């Protein structure tokens, strides 16, 4: 090519290219312009100073379309034939848009251009996710979404890791801790709605934000959920054995639980609860039976995990008693209770529970019979023995409103656990140390009974009973804030800190610290008037 | 310039699909601040056009379920007539912007809007919108959720699908 010139009019200075001196081609700098159609893209080399017409000629060749069908657009402007490329600023490497008009399309486009032409109105689905749709724009359109939702759920449910990861995500947690949201979700499920109509208690339950929140907390933590389900199963299985209790249970189950589970299962694709709950939908009796076996026995040492101890005769007696609070089941139970005061309250306030307690305490034989029949104990006469002896005491405790309030106070339970842990640590660190009164309750932590010098009552029988009682009383005292010097001594440093922060009411400080188990921040919250849940 | 070529105003409607939740929750969720989950549409010739799971749709401006836009950006003017534009859209709708080509991360409503904006006015849409997918994917959360998100089609109801191939 040559230098940029005004066209072929002037002969190039020292060029012999007069032959190819055409006005458009060959003279100007060649630029490469991308011509883009909706479906296609071509790079066209053209002289920089070409006119639009010339450009179109080239394009028409390339795209196999007639020139008058071509509409070129650049920077929002339509390139008219008389224009030149440079006039529009079309330079090397830039993109020009092309629309190829077709005769039929013209008429079509005018009809499609009217939006009122309602081509395919989109149905608005009643997504089960309700408000969740605003979160990520889900559920805002097609039937696509419903399948997607199913898919997503299925995927999630079948991949527990992903599920737990998802659950741990603060956003999800946030969402789940919004009871209104969850409630909406649940009620929007038509099956749930049916269920609710049939059983007004369900709607009560759904309307109780406290309960919902608790349920959501459980749902967040699959492990906790699992535990809760098992414990629920266990509690229910115990209740089963009470005359009349079985019927009540059965009623409860068939009326409420089953439909709810299946409804929930529908909604969630594959209800994680049911999976965790051990498939209790399959029927009351069989599931109970199955579930009993592996459940940890909170009222005594787990059979399987402590064979040496339970076989340990005399040592096994007190050790068994001491282990009452230490079994993993108990620990987790305590943990749950401390995190879910509602759970305990529900359990304790449930009418059948109360009456059961009543009848049990009044009739220790009945109670022991019940326990005997419970397969949990069946394999272990030792256990039965202990439990029988401890039973009256235990029942007393349960009746004791103070004990009840302790159990419903999450902080109290937390502190209880902390104490245990502390004592446990102490045990292992300083085995020679014997703390009067609190010893019987000390968990032996699974260590061999012979190493457990802290089980001071050496013979089986009444001492564990007494010791147990002592422990309970002591704990109660501690939480009542008076009695031992321990709380004040324990919390001395915290008290000082609170003091320094300006909380000068020592009594209140102490109470708060006791209630929160020494947690300063929580204590401060308490002091400032926020109510513990 | 030719006075007799009609000019049409082109606007960009920007919607935040998360309704503000992204702004507050993104720091926790993603570890970075995202001011919104952006859905965009082009408004021109008195209509709103957007790309979703069903393909290119149109409706009256602000007429989707999303309601009025959070932000409106003036993209400028175009000489392209409605007729040509519709033809252009039809072609797009048959090819790169068919419904099944929708990809939440790589080929979404904003991709469409960007392309159309450039077609009509030569200007792209603001980069913070087109950068959104890569921003999300750069976070661990985005990576984890990617398989799920990839299969999500966002299609705000209220629009009518433009099917270029069919003659009505």
UniProtKB/TrEMBL annotation, chain A:
<dbReference type="InterPro" id="IPR000626">
    <property type="entry name" value="Ubiquitin-like_dom"/>
</dbReference>
<keyword id="KW-0256">Endoplasmic reticulum</keyword>
<keyword id="KW-0158">Chromosome</keyword>
<keyword id="KW-1017">Isopeptide bond</keyword>
<dbReference type="Pfam" id="PF00627">
    <property type="entry name" value="UBA"/>
</dbReference>
<dbReference type="GO" id="GO:0006281">
    <property type="term" value="P:DNA repair"/>
</dbReference>
<dbReference type="GO" id="GO:0005783">
    <property type="term" value="C:endoplasmic reticulum"/>
</dbReference>
<dbReference type="GO" id="GO:0031593">
    <property type="term" value="F:polyubiquitin modification-dependent protein binding"/>
</dbReference>
<dbReference type="InterPro" id="IPR006636">
    <property type="entry name" value="STI1_HS-bd"/>
</dbReference>
<feature type="domain" description="UBA">
    <location>
        <begin position="485"/>
        <end position="530"/>
    </location>
</feature>
<keyword id="KW-0832">Ubl conjugation</keyword>
<dbReference type="GO" id="GO:0006511">
    <property type="term" value="P:ubiquitin-dependent protein catabolic process"/>
</dbReference>
<dbReference type="InterPro" id="IPR009060">
    <property type="entry name" value="UBA-like_sf"/>
</dbReference>
<dbReference type="GO" id="GO:0048471">
    <property type="term" value="C:perinuclear region of cytoplasm"/>
</dbReference>
<feature type="compositionally biased region" description="Gly residues">
    <location>
        <begin position="311"/>
        <end position="320"/>
    </location>
</feature>
<dbReference type="Pfam" id="PF00240">
    <property type="entry name" value="ubiquitin"/>
</dbReference>
<dbReference type="GO" id="GO:0005829">
    <property type="term" value="C:cytosol"/>
</dbReference>
<dbReference type="GO" id="GO:0005694">
    <property type="term" value="C:chromosome"/>
</dbReference>
<feature type="region of interest" description="Disordered">
    <location>
        <begin position="438"/>
        <end position="466"/>
    </location>
</feature>
<keyword id="KW-0597">Phosphoprotein</keyword>
<feature type="compositionally biased region" description="Pro residues">
    <location>
        <begin position="295"/>
        <end position="305"/>
    </location>
</feature>
<dbReference type="InterPro" id="IPR029071">
    <property type="entry name" value="Ubiquitin-like_domsf"/>
</dbReference>
Automatic annotation (TrEMBL), chain B:
<dbReference type="InterPro" id="IPR008580">
    <property type="entry name" value="PPPDE_dom"/>
</dbReference>
<comment type="similarity">
    <text>Belongs to the DeSI family.</text>
</comment>
<keyword id="KW-0378">Hydrolase</keyword>
<dbReference type="GO" id="GO:0070646">
    <property type="term" value="P:protein modification by small protein removal"/>
</dbReference>
<dbReference type="GO" id="GO:0008474">
    <property type="term" value="F:palmitoyl-(protein) hydrolase activity"/>
</dbReference>
<dbReference type="InterPro" id="IPR042266">
    <property type="entry name" value="PPPDE_sf"/>
</dbReference>
<dbReference type="GO" id="GO:0008233">
    <property type="term" value="F:peptidase activity"/>
</dbReference>
<dbReference type="GO" id="GO:0006508">
    <property type="term" value="P:proteolysis"/>
</dbReference>
<feature type="domain" description="PPPDE">
    <location>
        <begin position="8"/>
        <end position="150"/>
    </location>
</feature>
<protein>
    <recommendedName>
        <fullName>palmitoyl-protein hydrolase</fullName>
        <ecNumber>3.1.2.22</ecNumber>
    </recommendedName>
</protein>
<keyword id="KW-0645">Protease</keyword>
<dbReference type="Pfam" id="PF05903">
    <property type="entry name" value="Peptidase_C97"/>
</dbReference>
């Amino acid at each position: 090519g040559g230098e940029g010139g005004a066209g072929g009019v002037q002969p190039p200075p020292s060029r012999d290219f007069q032959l190819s001196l055409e006005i458009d081609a060959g003279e100007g700098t060649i630029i490469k312009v991308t011509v883009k159609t909706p479906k296609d893209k071509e790079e066209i080399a053209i002289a920089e100073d070409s006119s639009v017409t010339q450009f179109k000629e080239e394009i028409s060749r390339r795209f196999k379309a007639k020139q008058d069908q071509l509409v070129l657009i650049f920077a929002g402007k339509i390139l008219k034939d008389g224009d030149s490329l440079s006039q529009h600023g079309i330079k090397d490497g830039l993109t020009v848009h092309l629309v190829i008009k077709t005769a039929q399309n013209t008429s079509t486009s005018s009809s499609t251009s009217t939006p009122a032409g309602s081509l395919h109105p989109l149905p608005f689905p009643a997504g089960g996710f309700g408000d969740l749709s605003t979160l990520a724009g889900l559920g805002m359109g097609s039937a696509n979404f419903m399948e997607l939702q199913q898919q997503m759920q299925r995927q999630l449910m079948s991949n527990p890791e992903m599920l737990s990861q998802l659950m741990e995500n603060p956003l999800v947690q946030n969402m789940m801790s919004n009871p209104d949201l969850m409630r909406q979700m649940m009620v929007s499920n038509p099956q749930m709605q049916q269920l609710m109509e049939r059983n007004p208690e369900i709607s009560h339950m759904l309307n109780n934000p406290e309960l919902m929140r608790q349920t959501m907390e459980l749902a967040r933590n699959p492990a906790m959920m699992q535990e809760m389900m098992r414990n629920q199963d266990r509690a229910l299985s115990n209740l089963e054995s009470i005359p009349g209790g079985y019927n009540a249970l059965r009623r409860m189950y068939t009326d409420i639980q089953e439909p709810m589970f299946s409804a929930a299962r529908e909604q969630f694709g594959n209800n994680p609860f049911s999976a965790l709950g051990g498939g209790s939908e399959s029927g009351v009796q069989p599931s109970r039976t199955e579930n009993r076996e592996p459940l940890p026995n909170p009222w005594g040492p787990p059979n399987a995990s402590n064979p040496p101890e339970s076989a340990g005769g005399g040592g096994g007696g007190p050790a068994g008693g001491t282990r009452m609070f230490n079994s993993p089941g108990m620990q987790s139970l305590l943990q749950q209770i401390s995190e879910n005061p509602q759970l305990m309250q529900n359990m304790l306030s449930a009418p059948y529970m109360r009456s059961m307690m009543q009848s049990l305490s009044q009739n220790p034989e009945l109670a022991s019979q019940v326990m005997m029949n419970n397969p949990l104990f069946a394999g272990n006469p030792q256990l039965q023995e202990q439990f029988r002896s401890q039973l009256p005491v235990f029942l007393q405790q349960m009746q004791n409103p103070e004990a009840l309030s302790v159990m419903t106070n999450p902080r109290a339970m937390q502190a209880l656990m902390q104490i245990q842990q502390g004592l446990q640590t102490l045990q292992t660190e300083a085995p020679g140390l014997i703390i009067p009164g609190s010893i019987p309750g000390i968990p032996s932590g699974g260590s061999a009974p012979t190493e457990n010098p802290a089980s001071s009552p050496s013979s089986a029988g009444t001492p564990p009973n007494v010791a147990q009682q002592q422990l309970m009383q002591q704990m109660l005292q501690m939480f009542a804030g008076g009695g031992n010097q321990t709380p004040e001594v324990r919390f001395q440093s915290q008290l000082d800190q609170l003091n320094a922060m300006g909380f000068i009411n020592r009594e209140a400080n102490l109470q708060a610290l006791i209630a929160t188990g020494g947690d300063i921040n929580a204590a401060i919250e308490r002091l400032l008037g926020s109510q513990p849940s | 310039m030719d006075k007799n070529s009609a000019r049409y105003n082109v606007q960009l409607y920007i919607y935040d699909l998360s309704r503000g939740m992204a702004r507050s929750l993104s720091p926790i969720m993603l570890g970075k601040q995202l001011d919104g989950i952006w859905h965009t549409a082009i408004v021109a010739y008195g209509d709103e056009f957007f790309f979703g799971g069903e393909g290119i749709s149109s409706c009256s401006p602000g007429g989707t379920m999303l309601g009025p836009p959070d932000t409106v950006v003036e993209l400028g003017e175009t000489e392209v007539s409605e007729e040509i534009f519709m033809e252009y859209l039809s072609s797009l709708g048959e090819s790169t912007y068919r419904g099944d080509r929708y990809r939440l991360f790589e080929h979404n409503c904003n991709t469409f809007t960007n392309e159309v904006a450039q077609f009509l006015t030569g200007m792209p849409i603001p980069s913070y919108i087109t950068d959104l997918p890569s921003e999300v994917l750069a976070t661990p959360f985005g990576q984890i959720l990617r398989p799920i998100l990839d299969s999500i089609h966002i299609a705000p109801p209220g629009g009518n699908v433009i099917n270029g191939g069919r003659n009505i």
